[in-house]
Amino acid sequence: MLPSFLTGTYQQYKKDTDNIATWLATTAKSFGYASDLLPDDKQPVQKKPKAKSKSKPKTKKQLRDAARRIPRQQREHIIPIQEFLSLAAYIAGHVKASFEVPHSALSTLKRAIEARRKSNIWFRTNEKDDDSDEGHAHFIGILEEVHDILKPHSSPLTEDAASGDLDVDNLFANLQLEEPSETFINGPGPNRNAAQPAPRIRYQAEPMKERFEMLFAAFSLFNDILKIHGFLQNMWEQYHKGDLDLITVSITSNTAIDIVRRLEQEFFDRFSSARDPEEVINMLFHYKCLLQGVQPDQKPEHDGDIPFNIDMYETAQFLLMDNLTLLSAFADVVTPNNIPIHTPGFYGTYDPKADRIKMSDAQKFQEDKVICTAIFTDFCFLARFTKNIPAEDELTRGIRIMVNDKKLHIWTLFAARLFIDVHHLLRSELDVPFKQLQDLGTKIKDTWAMTVRFRGDLELENWPPQNDMVIEENLIKVIDKWLFEDPIQTSMERVVRNVPIPKGQFRLFRQHPLLCGLFAFSLQVRAHEYGVDYANAWGGVLYTGHLYNAVRQEGYCQPPWMDMEMLIGMQTPEKIFIGGKPTNTDAYMKRFALSMGYSATQYARNRRGEGAVASRMGPRGLGTVGELSNILRDRYCENADLHDWSLDTIEKVLNANYEVNIDAEDDEEEPEPGVMFVNLKSRDKRKAKEHLRKKLRQSAQLSAVEMLYALTISMSQEVPLLSFDYFGLHRSCWSVLRITQKAMHQKLLKYFGPGYLETETQLPFIVGYIFMVASQSQRASEQLPGLKKMLRGAQVGSELLASAGEGLQMLLTSESWSTQMDMQVQKVAWYGRMLFPVKEADGKTPKVSTKIDLGEYELVLEQNGLSNEPQ
């Protein structure tokens, strides 16, 4: 079933019509309407016991008679659809001067009408069926009449409310702002006594006959899939243009397949007469063909090539029938112990330079067939690595189920459709995502290798050798095995005998960008977690951050250290400094001591090896960032079977994000080019986010596309944070501590004696020594105000702090050091976003920028440069 915060078209329609029934009944009763179909609210209500017989009353009279035979307290309060007119007419005829029909009532009616109308247009039923009491058109006509009766008794809409839909570029143009409120559901209108409790009786709208109801629900399912498909196409187009990163579109796409699976499951749970996806798809296709007066079978000129009437290609695509015919052909011949080996060129050769727009429908289907057959063998072999593959996508899982259980699901067909569509979009640049994935793997391997070399022979009790082995096993070897070897090809060569196998390495990865994106997410999350653990164990990053803040606060270092600013912005000043940035010498010392996990007595003068004095609170450290990433990590890093769980838990993060980030956008009329993660106008993006927040807060309901949009925005904001290189920042911070210690050695000897530093692993302690001297000297200056006045306001005893600030400023302004000191933000610019390297007409790579809020600064990252703008 769908999670509580998601709703499909059919589920929404059922809820809408039941809400309409409840509102009409309770409102009419409040005006004195008397009918035995509307029982007394004070009577206890119980659900009707399940009948042994499956037969149901078919006419309104039978429905009323059956209802009268059931004791009042056991009735299911079903209102025949024709009764809607009587209720609406009664309300209109007895309306009071102070009463207004709520706009949400009309909005809900219009949404129910629109859902039915789309289905009716698609089926194009004959006139007799349309006019029958059970037909689509009959239901539509009743709802339209109810709307027309009630509309004159509603107040005029404001200009904003009248516009109804959001004008959002490319993504979705039909987000409705009016939601059914509790006032509407519980009736009789906004002017009734607010203290009146909600009615205890709920009413249901009379359903159509089972045949019509199932057809409507099936159409709604595929129409929802079509909307999701259109949204994902837009996401991949934005990735192709460089406006979205590979990880975000891949996570969103795989989550969309999860949603389709849940929609499919809900459909088959509701309609037991629908036995399997293939039967439902063929039924709808044949029905549509007969309605249009054409035969569903293949045309003679395409016999053997296209197993359905190619003139109905658009309908076949809508129902995923084209993908069904392709995958079912494989399902008929493949078994767990028998995988067919594809012979290159057997069905033709894929030409990435061909113009698909100019192809006929038959040629398009043939191209799709070539794409699928060329890679199906690799998919089957990949399915055998399920327990070891770092991140499995839903298409691979669906093919594994197809191979092992001979089951083809609608969500598998949808995943195959998306796989083919990405081919059509990227075409000759299809292997770029895999190159990006390899670049990411190289980056992670390089930063770890540099960290090990940088550390040299240093040994730290908090970082035993076993920790290195964990990183090597779970990260470095995984990168080598999957990105620089080819286990799929190796397996194929080992298993297949006496049959030529397809040539070329990494065929599946080069043709499967979605898998590359999920793999990249898995690597980024693991590298992020290991980097944070390493930085916490050595302490250099956190405590150098304390030193940087102090020298900046005291004015001894003017240029910002953007890597450190980014760290503070990501981790938040409250976490880094335990309660916000300290601004005086006493606070520097106290916050540092708490972070270090030691008491201030640790830094007593002439202390010689007495051992560390621990704080009762223990040491503090950096944390992993990204709520969505933490939710999804087990699924994509541990291959956990959490396909349904992740949807349910994502709700909490999206709700929090849209409460916090709603006012983050500026008020510019036009956005800066290339800055937005999603290609939206600023005003419309803000409007969309307000809409999402409103829906999550008030009705806790999102459509599938709305949920995916919210996920896209939230995920795109986390990806740059995940790509931040904590290993690299550790090396920079440790270098700062080394240089600072050497420059200040004589002064530290003067204050603390030769035992101030017993081993290099204690380098972070020098930050505490600096703060101790500054704090103690500040207290002395306060006790001798004459001395402070004589020194014209100079900070007495800040000698060490000033010296540290001058040294850090020298590094930040040095040509040889400045690039290294700001290396991480530059890496985020072109590794974190994983931008698609499209070219402009002149052959140059366009600038692509993104903004990251760092608190005091707003960091703007660009491909061709780096700029830092004060807020």
Account of the 3D structure:
Residues 11-268 form the DUF6604 domain. This protein has 871 residues and is mostly helical. A hairpin with a 2-residue loop joins strand 6 (857-862) and strand 7. Helix 3 runs parallel beside helix 6 (136-150). The protein is flat. The two termini are 46 Å apart.
Task: Name a few traits of the molecule.
DUF6604; 3% strand; disordered C terminus; two-stranded parallel sheet; mainly alpha; 7 strands; DUF6604 domain-containing protein
Question: Helices and strands in order, then pairings?
Answer:
Layout: E1 6-7, H1 9-30, H2 60-69, E2 78-79, H3 83-93, H4 103-123, H5 127-131, H6 136-150, H7 159-163, H8 182-186, E3 204-205, H9 210-241, H10 246-270, H11 277-291, H12 313-318, H13 321-331, H14 361-383, H15 394-405, H16 410-426, H17 432-455, H18 465-483, H19 487-495, H20 507-511, H21 513-538, H22 540-553, H23 562-571, H24 573-576, H25 585-596, H26 627-637, H27 645-660, H28 682-699, E4 702-703, H29 704-722, H30 726-743, H31 745-752, H32 765-783, H33 785-790, H34 799-813, H35 815-821, H36 823-832, E5 849-853, E6 857-862, E7 865-870
Parallel strand pairs: 1-4, 2-3
Antiparallel strand pairs: 5-6, 6-7
Which quaternary structure do these chains form? single chain
Q: Given the structure, what is the number of helices?
A: 36
Helicity, as a percent range: 55-70%
Portion in beta strands: under 5%
How many β-strand runs?
7
Structural classification: mainly alpha
Taking the sheet with the most strands, its summary is:
3 strands, antiparallel
Low-confidence stretches: 41-57, 67-75, 125-133, 158-181, 189-199, 659-685, 780-796, 830-841, 845-849, 861-871
Shape, principal axes of CA atoms: flat
Order of strands, widest sheet:
5-6-7
Q: Kindly state the mean pLDDT as a whole number?
A: 76
Count of the domains: 4
Report the radius of gyration as a whole number of Å: 33 Å
